[in-house]
Structure formats: C-alpha cells, structure tokens
Prior knowledge:
The protein is 23% helix and 40% strand.
Amino acid sequence: MIKGGEILVREYECPSCGATMVFDSTSQKMLCKHCGTQKTVQEMEGLLEENKQEVDYHTGEQASFRRYTCKGCGAEILTDDYTAATFCSFCGNPTLIEDRLSGEKTPAQIIPFKINKEQAQNMYQAWCKKGPLTPSDFTSKTTIEKITGMYVPFWLYDYTANAKIGANCTRVSRERRGDMEYTHTDHYYVHRDVSDFYKKIPVDASEKMPDNVMDKLEPFSYGEIKDFDMGYLSGFMAERYNFTSDEMKKRAEKRVKEYILRETKNTIQGYTTTVITEQNVRLNCKEASYAMLPVWLLNYRYKGKDYLFTLNGQTGKIVGTLPISKGKMAVWFGGVTAVVYLLLTLIGGILG
C-alpha cells in the first residue's frame, strides 16, 4: 500500500542476528544464511507485523520507474512499476516492495520454489552438454551465475465447458465370395454432447515472458499450491501482473475450447472415416485467481541473437534453445571429412 507518498518495502530480519532471511526451497522455510536460523513463513509474518518498518523512496525522473532506499546499505535502487521482489545491486540484499502486491494486486496463491539455485545451475550445465556444438561461453561460470529465480504472475481459470458435435461417419467391411470381393460401406450420422469442468488453466500475465515458452513449462503440480505470503518471495525476483484476468480470458478460452473439442472427438471411435460437419462450444468462467509460479531464467545473447533458458522451479522441466558454435561446427565437419577420407583410402588400398 502507499501512504503519504511512500512505498512500503518489506524485509525479513532474522530474530537471532538481524541479517536478512530468504525463502529456502529445500527446507520450505525462511532461512538466515548468516546464523542458520529457520522459521516458517507464517512465523516470520507474525514477527514482521510486530515490528513493521517503512522505507522512504524518491520519485524517479521517469514516470515508469521508481527509486527506493536499500535498508542493507542505503543505496538507491531503480525498479519499474511491476517489480515486486528484487535485489540490491550493491550489497545483494533481497527486498520486497509491498505496495506492488497489495490490495487488488495481492496474489491469492503461490507455488514455492522446490529447486534451488545450485540445482538449477547443475541442470543448466547438463542441458548445455546435450548440444555438442554449444558455444563454450554458455557454460562459463560468469554465464551460469546469471541464472535468476523469478515468480511469474499467472491467472488460473476455472471453466465449465460443453461441446456438441455432429459427424458423418462410415464403416467399411469387405467379404470374398468365390473370385469376387465385395465392399460394404455403412453410413452413420453421429452426435456427441460432452460437458466437463477444467480447473486452474494457467495463463501467464507478464508482458516480458513469451507466452509460448510459459505454456511449454507446464504442467505445474497444484497439490503443492499455497495461500500467498510475501515471505515466499524473499531471495527471488518477482513481478506483478501486466494484464488483468479479463484481458487474458481469450487465451484461456482458446485453450479450454481445444480441450473440450479434443475430448469430445475422442469419443467417436470404431469408424473407418469421420468428417465433422458441425460443432458448438459453450464456455462459462467460474473463477479467475491470481497466482505466482516459480521459474528459473537465463537470458543470453550470441552472435546478435537472443536466447532464453527457462526451468520450471517446481518440476524441473526445461524449455530453451541452444545456439550452435560455427567454430565447433567447422572442427566437427573437418573431423568427419578426415575420417571419411581415411576410410575411402583404406578401402581403395584393399581393393587395389
């Protein structure tokens, strides 16, 4: 919330030593890396309410950016209007900007990170090794250290759906009588009426995240979803949504329509041919809830082209594209050519 022109900045101070506590994906608790103290997110929320503090900020020169003061070192940090959790670039202190996720902007749910940074880095290295022609720069220590954990804003939609389809179908059979073969074709008109309920259809609401990449990171396991608490964000980046649930509804409805039509068409079995002649779909949005889902990210640039590595911070699923090193390709091609030449020479010697 904003009071008197101030942004409330939230930090979780260790009750034992005063250092900043972060969310630890391994223990699923708040952890002080300085003294090892652990507390649940709920325990830290209780302590924070008892000792709430505010940090002043100064309005930046550009309307789309704001400056605030780091409590760790006093440096000014510049953020855009959608950043909800970040780090001080000077001291590395994790900072949560409370007003970005307050009121109607407050997420309802969150899936905490299960994969920590070291695990994400190891998975990235293993992924890079699958590309034998991957440039060596992509596995350098400098590149690997840039992997960032971010909570991406999603809308989760609940929909009831009904599909009615009509189809002209045939069933072909053959029989032989003596020297003659007869083909029988039976024609049918098939009608299907199927209803279903789809829960938590995810649609990312961030302008920065490519929709096709976020879709491929699915599925997330909703059995581990929790009620939102700011403590889960500590130690990670986070952004609030750029688009409202109404603005993203078309994407959700497109997906639900595909699901119900596929489900309905799959009920038509046992025919030789099937031609859909009519279809009608009705959708009803029952609920749209705002959630934060965990993603490890790495943006990298090679030969003037941008590449994006993404890793589902809960399941470990990887989506990304590896570039090809022209130097390695030349060495590989030269090696293959040399082997082929050697084989041909040996074969020629044997035949001669």
